[in-house]
Hints:
The structure is a single chain. By secondary structure, this protein is of the alpha/beta class. It folds into 2 domains: 2-129 and 205-502, TIM Barrel; 510-577, Immunoglobulin-like (Sandwich), CATH 2.60.40.1180. The chain is 30% helix and 15% strand. It has 20 helices and 20 strands. The chain has an 8-stranded parallel beta sheet. A 5-stranded antiparallel beta sheet has the order 14-15-16-20-18. Strand 15 (521-528) and strand 16 (531-538) form a beta hairpin. The longest helix is centred in the middle third of the chain and has 17 residues, at 202-218. Mean pLDDT is 93; it is low at 1-27.
Amino acid sequence: MKKFFAILFLFTFLSSTGFAGEKDMKENNLKWWQCKPVYQVYPKSFFDTDGTGSGDINGITSKLDYLKSLDVGAIWITPVYPSPMVDNGYDIADYTGINESFGSMDDFDKLLAEAKKRDIKIVMDLVFNHTSDKHEWFLESKKNTKNPKADWYIWRDAKDGKEPTNWRAIFGGSAWTWCEERKQYYLHTFAKEQPDLNWNNPDVRRALYDAANFWLSKGVGGFRIDAITYIKKPRTFTDGKPDGKDGTVNIHTMTANQPGILDFLREFKHRVFDGKDIFTVGEANGVSARELPEWVGKDGVFDMLFEFSHVDLPFDAAEIWCYPKEWKLTDLKRALSNSQKATRDNGWYPIFFENHDQPRSVNHFFPEGADPKKAAKALATVLMTMRGTPFIYQGQELGMTNVSWNDIEKYNDISSHGQYEFAIKEGFSPDDAMKFVRYFSRDNARTPMQWNDEANAGFSPEGVKTWLPVNENYKTINAEAEEKDSDSVLAFYRKLGALRRAHETLIAGDYKEIFSDSEEIFAFERSFNGETLTTLVNFSLKPVKVPAEIVNKNLVLSSEKVFDDSELQPLEARIYKIK
Length: 579
């Protein structure tokens, strides 16, 4: 613990005194959210302070010093609003309240205040494509076709006695559900308990903007906006070309990123974001790198945009787990570099490899058999040295891995159950269907945070049943053990954080990919004010020669304690500086 507090003091000191080049960054108009990483918290799995087996807001507050030691500038928390929790909070029943399972509004206010003392902003998750079917708006809308909120959701009559279109919801099954009260179908991009809002109705938009402004009035530092590419629906609803044997088509291909969506979002920006010292980052599945300038930058609608070209390499637009595609390192590098190029002169990029919807990165981006500790360090090096704001997902800084459950009933994730059932209908065996779930399930990222090697990994008190089982490797992968190990993944993240503060080049510098044809090495240069730093990462499981162009540079940092100047070890990462 003494070592931990010594490290914490060092980072606090650095935060208060600044570093060489901070003045220049202000002159370059870089904002606070461009200079420090953002840490994503999944509250249900972060830390349980009341012994319920589920995390809470006070759990986040109690770990603020830990997060401060990672030098984060903001904490993005996934939804903590009142919700039936069909989709773990992404089915919202009240946009301006706090779910009792997470605590109270007083607890949230305390989190805001304590975070502010540490110069950390709290960023809320806005889910504006849909609500819960228990939201008072929907309860009124479904009564009949004449009520004041009749047009707040998307309703259609039956077509030939069945669903209006052949669209399949992202979580599986038809995207349409029959409402007996109203004698119509309603549309839901995700679960049937998540009816889509009608953004064409100005009253709907006004109510959503009011909700966002409510949180800004409390002092939050910004928003991550969920599933935003689905808010604008096509003019006419027609059947699509089936992509499954059941004759259905994924709704994503029929509704994502429709013409006119940016008009809605410009209004959203004007009514909520303009003139405020916050940042906004949209989740925009389906937006390509070439479209990024329309979404971010001087004339864009958000400050940053999560686009998924690099994490969705195994899939086509339908994201069907049982039909994954092969991909190569050059595909990953191209996806990342294309996004870098698209935001180079206009915009900013949120760098991420994990979130609450993705499998753990050490399993997702590396060959089977890769050492998870080495893989975690390798990817951390890319994350923390690429141009943009790094987003660290809880446990990523420890090198947490996927789980290996063999029973679909152990999975809580509604999407995993939908994908499993779809694979069975497509003719796959239960064993094969489980393989796809184990590899891609969102629950891989949602298992409780591993704080120590005690019962429940220190997440919940001993004897408490956690809402989702703890990953069995918590005995060796946990924060307490890594605090004591100078060679741990956690220690390496802190080294990378210190390096970012010591070298303004890693924050404000240009990005240039090198050795783009290599299927083993991911390498790029960052240049600023006469300094050039080179990141070099071996993504393969074999030694690779250090390119001749790199040999004469000074080594700044390596993920390996013992290294050969002429050869990169498997999964080794290095950062060089031109002499």
